[in-house]
Amino acid sequence: MKAVYKLVTLVLTVAFFPAVVFAPFFKLLVTSNLLSLFTSSSDDVMINASYSIKDIAGLLEPYSEQLKSFSFTDIPEAIRDAIGLPFALFLGFFILAVLTDVLLLILGVFTRKRRAAFIFALLGVVFTVGMNISFGYVSKPLVNGSISISELLGPTILSGIGEVQSGLSSLVTSLMGSGSQLIVIKLLNLSTAYILMLLVFIAEAVWTISHIIADPDPEKKTGNKSKKSKKRA
Q1: In this predicted model, what pLDDT tens digit does every residue of 93-125 receive, in sequence order?
Q2: Rounded distance between C-alpha atoms, residue 40 and residue 43, angstroms
Q3: How far apart are CA 192 and CA 119, in angstroms?
Q4: Reduced to 3 states, what is the DSSP secondary structure of residue 37?
Q5: Percentages of the chain per state (helix, strand, coil), in multiples of 5
Q6: Residue 111 DSSP symbol
Q7: Cα separation, 227 vs 233, whole angstroms
Q8: What is the b/e burial string over 4-20, where b = at least 16 CB atoms within 10 angstroms of the residue's CB?
Q9: Residue partners of 194: CB distance under 8 A and separation at least 6
Q10: Among 18, 120, 140, 160, whose CB has the most other CB atoms within 10 angstroms?
Q11: Alpha-carbon distance 190 to 199, whole Å?
Q12: CA-to-CA distance for 55 and 49, rounded, in angstroms?
């Protein structure tokens, strides 16, 4: 049973990392009112996709030079005031969730501290839910129109994008920076990766508590065995 417990714990905690990196992390829906200038159509979908962390890294790669010179001050002050704290909390909860999974791997596979593993699994659930709630406060002003795409990106970032784009992309970039609401974010939330992270921690908590109930004192047994071996010696 101990070997099975450690094996399942190993599988769950290791599976956490590819889920975070490769599973869709963000769901984005962007619409445009460009067609409404010429027809009666409105809210034409420009982007309706989910992006993993790997996808985002690939999308940012062409702008690596611009990102090197990017600083916190490039973000407009109004944006920092509106979503700075929620975004910092989102990153904090995300990092804590990743670190918690590492601790679960160590506790579950290399020690007998199952009660500690159970507590950290519950903390993982709390951190993951906190991450989702924090991101909700990040996306809310973007979706309800309080912050436009042009305001979010700011003139410095828009000019950087314009340097590496041409043709239709440049036209779209110009429209984004025009201060109009021709291009709007309709949906921005966490996607599959968030659900998988949550499921890993819940599964780890259930798996661990079931073994605590079935074998409540593995640490005591280990201690008793070591005492008996000392007496025999």
Answers
A1: 999 999 999 999 999 999 989 999 999 999 999
A2: 10
A3: 24
A4: helix
A5: 75, 10, 15
A6: -
A7: 10
A8: ebeebbeebbeebeebb
A9: 25, 128, 131, 132
A10: 120
A11: 14
A12: 11
Q: What does the domain layout of the chain look like in residue ranges?
A: 2-58+76-145+181-218
Q: Which residue has the tokens 């989702």?
A: 132
Which residue from 5, 227, 14, 1 is spatially nearest to 111, judged by alpha carbons? 5
Give the pLDDT score at 179.
46
The per-residue pLDDT for 178 is 47
What is the three-class DSSP state of 44?
A: strand
d(CA 10, CA 58): 29
189-193, 212-216, 227-231, range with the lowest pLDDT: 227-231
Q: Please, is 97 exposed, middle or buried when counting C-beta atoms within 10 Å of its C-beta (0-12, 13-18, 19+)?
A: buried
